[in-house]
Protein 1
Amino acid sequence: MLKAQINSHNKKLLTLFAVLGITLNVPSFSEESKTSSLSSEQKAEVELVVRDVLKKDPDLVEASLRAGMEKKEAAAREEAKKAVKAEHKALFEDSKDPILGNPNGTVSMVVFMDPYCGYCRKFQAVLLGLVKERKDLKVVYKAYPIMSNESKQAAEEEMAANDMGRFQDYHEAIYESSVRSRKERFALAEKNKIDLAKLKDNIPGISKSAGAAAVEKRLEGNMKLGRKLGINGTPAFIIGGELHPGMVGKEELIELINAQAKK
């Protein structure tokens, strides 16, 4: 009988998960039980056993899944760290990237942001405050438009403004506004005295100029780089060789900057 073959609660429970194709992080689960082939009668028997195990130890599944998730997250962080090291030049030394703060700052961080990501807009306020306070801080901006087509168009416009030497003006205008269309963003450009004809001449889809082609290539490079690092959401930033996915508050960011400044 199956009960005689599986002599512990963990093995009984995990055999069912093996049948369902789920692997949990419990040491007593043998390779043999992972690959065992069960009949329909055996599967039904395991289900009864599982109900009993869960009744007696309801935290088993949650703890096992949590342990498995933590292991995956640790592995992902390690892979991201390797990728950051391998792509250091593309991340920190591309002269075409927009810069916030001091271009010669001794503490560098790279940010991946989407113009229409709500958390990016909150993070933007934190960044702007810090680059004003910290004269040693250099922030390399990587437009990473993953939210929508409007995000992509806004990112194209940001890069076009960067090629005109007007990145920060246009970037801040977009992030601080509620406009949602290219027409409205062009009105913002004019309000900030940005040459609209020159801006349009560097925007893919509007112009076929070399500048527009360069903007398109740069954004494609950003997307490719982000995928190599495993960035699936924004904001994400890199400092001290570590990738930090998600927004952090001012105090936590200051701690990271101070730690890097001491190196």
Note: The longest strand covers residues 107-113.
Protein 2
Amino acid sequence: MVNNELLLLYVAFALVVGIAVGYFLRLLISLGKRGSMELEVKQILLEAREEAKNITADAQKKADEIRERAETEAENTDEKRKTTEDRLIKKEELLDKRQLSLDSEESRLKEKQSELDSYSNETKELEERLRQELASISNMDEKEAREEIFKVIKHDYEEDLMHRLKKLDISGEERMQQKAKEVLVSSIHRLGNSVASEIMSTSVSIDSEDIKGKIIGKEGRNIRTFEKAAGVELIIDDTPGAILISSFDPIRRQIARVALENLILDGRVQPTRIEEEIEKAQAEVNQIIREKGEEAVYECSIYNLDNRITSILGRLYFRSSYGQNVLRHSIEVSHLAGMIAEEVGADVLVAKTAGLVHDIGKAVDHEVQGSHVEIGKRILEKFGAKPEIIKAMQAHHEEYPYETLEAKIVQVADSISASRPGARRDSVENYLKRLSELEDMALTFDGIDRAYALQAGREIRVFVTPENISDIDAVELAKNLARKIEGELRYPGEIKVNVIRESRTIEYAR
């Protein structure tokens, strides 16, 4: 019994000791884990602080860079603003000076005008007194007296007046030395060939109406892709055997025409194929533009132009004016200007170069605002053309004053090329209407028997009745008819008025 109790005591004591030892071991293990976790937390905090320092340093560096750029841009902006202000101040000073000059000139002109008005009034008063005295002496009014004086002069001095008029004509021609006519006639004769107009068609022919359905595509997918990629509008209507291409840009029309013809030949019309063909057509047309510009420069023997000017010049191959190809017209103006410059002793190279580029602004006038002269001037200035070339080309439509002899030569050459026979096309209806108006205008004068318009309306020959019209009347008739044509008709170049008075005497011997 005692042994059992001791055994129980030993067991109880062993349990107590085991529990105490287990608790102590658990306490030691938990304390170890806690120290390890604290170390990990401290390590994470250290790494976070280091990363925060790096981020702060990077942010500070970027902030410094942004501040430096902002300060630099602000300085540049201030400099530009100061430069602009200085330029505006100079312009204002210049405008003020010009305004003062204009004001003084205006006051001087007003004084001159007042003097002229006073002289005119005095002259009118004197003329009125003379008319009254003449009327009282002759017992005729002013109109009757004038007609009577003219009759007497025409009757008594008609032959003398005719001789004097002829002498005046001869002396005038001698003063001009006939140089202008000789130069122009020589130039026109050397370059008097008729140029066939090259119009780039905007209509594409098709063999079958089924092709229109392919071009349109399912729900209009193909035609929308084509119009978007080419920048044109396709007009597919009931017109048999044709598809029309509409665009204000002749280059785009040509690209669209080439691409559409290739698509029709290939037969595969789908969006991907459409984009590929348009890219090929663009490369092909750009190559044509470069080649045409280089051919024009080579034909005119001009080798000092920038390649970019040459490329822009080639675009004129696809531009026409009144049926006349603008590039061929420019080449012709260059040749004419060179011939005239050689005759009158001007700079041939400047005249030829200015003649070749005088219409270069027409290559982009549908894309850039302004007249083609102003656009061409900006193009030449941008690409480094010589100032004398710019001065010579900018005055061919009289938008700028003639500063050099070459400028007048280019204007004359441009007029010759545009107005000579065969250069530009016109419809048959307008052509016949212009000739008919010219003949009808001549027949409105009294004493005219017949009138014929010749040389495409550049000459009007008038036959008068010799019994009603004398030689001096014929001279006066020619002048009056020329004035009436100038005032009422619109025409290129000039019209020669040729009045013919012929008298015949017929007698029979029996």
Note: The beta strands are 203-205, 233-235, 242-246, 320-321, 324-325, 448-454, 459-464, 496-501.
Protein 3
Amino acid sequence: MGGQAAPAPDVAPDVALDNGSSAAGNAVVYLREWYVSPTGSDSAPGTSTQPFRTITRALSAVGPGERINVSAGTYAERVRITGSVRAGTASAPIRLQGVGKPKIVPNADSGSLVQIEKPYWQVDGFEVDVQGKAYYAAHFAGNVTGSVLSHGNLHGGTAGTGVSTHYACVGATISDNEIHHFQKPGDDSHGILVQPGSKQISILRNVIHDNSGDSIQCIGPEGLSAEPPADGVLIQDNTMYHDHEQAVDVKTCYNVTIKHNVMRDYLEALPGGCSLVVHMSAREVLIEDNDIFNVGKAIAIGGNHVGPVPYHVVVKQNRIRNVVKGYQLEGIGIKLENSQMARVFNNTFVGVGFAAITAGGGDQGYTTDLMIKDNIISTGNGTAYGIYLSPYYSVLLSRYNLFAPGTLFSAVTSGSRRTLTLDGWRSATGQDGPSRQVDPQLDPATMMPGPPAVDWGEYVGVPWCGAGPDIGAVESGCP
């Protein structure tokens, strides 16, 4: 965060307002400025020289186009942006600004410490310390279009999550926070929980770690809610690590994009050190341009489900590396179980302990209509498999992949599992006729491919530069 701007007058003329795109500290003039300080009084007028004592008092006074400035200190209260508190508007949002990272802690009341239930509110720059209590640090509920929780440090709760979207939440943005150490003894506590009925939720540029559940879970309604599945969830540019479960768990949710995140250090996570799972009856999930490393399993699709299997999960342009096989660690890059129309395009696998891709294991159903194209698979040893195929699949198309020398394959033929060379794999399955087995000459720092992978792929909708698409996650030759 930048430094604070010079104090504005307590009452300002009508001028352009911060619409949420400006970071705290930019030269934005508000219609009115309110002030809160631990040394203030709620009977004061709330000016810079005579501030309020509580955030609650300021919430009752503020209106559209105005800002509340909260000075550093500790505030034992619930910040309730609900009820009679006024909403902002698209042209005149309301900003609740922490100055010097003021700390919000529990008081004797119950409920989330920060409750955002109005549209066009910007809550920025607070530490929310739940102090081991069984409360959410923050929640969004109802129509909160244009409302943002940003630049916070939220930690220390023992309820089921740190931040929740629920009660038909629409339009929430959670950005640029550190969310960590939400730990429920013997149970899950997620960093962020997107609940059924939520729509158009954006989770951007957060650092989320050390929770007893997932960093981010999009939970389905199965047996839990009469609300429809969450729909339209964007998870982008986050860093997630060292949770007890996954970085991201997508259950029955629709239209989820998981893009340009870092997911690392899940070797101790359950089950099996997996960093990302898409299961139940998820639909239209895009997993794109993520960096996943130091895990026991990078991505799992399918498995548990109630009703339909996951449908149209696209996994493309991800960098998957150091996937470890060991005690309870499967060493699998992408594991495909019961699912329909999964697409595995232009990923790069480096250093997998067991197999880059497994499919058709039969965990609660068939893998159907699967495509595997334009991937670089460099397993890093002579005992790992490029593709490990089990019998529970129908309609597989694998082609234009680049396998490093020594890569093995496995399939069940004539009732027996066989370890195969690339030629044997082609003969046994009819797959990978146009694929190659050659050193991809990867740059270890950038995963940029060398000449054997350049301009050689099949076009699958991924943008490309040069004479043709490259194989793998990183396209060469682009400006």
Note: The first helix runs from residue 55 to 61.
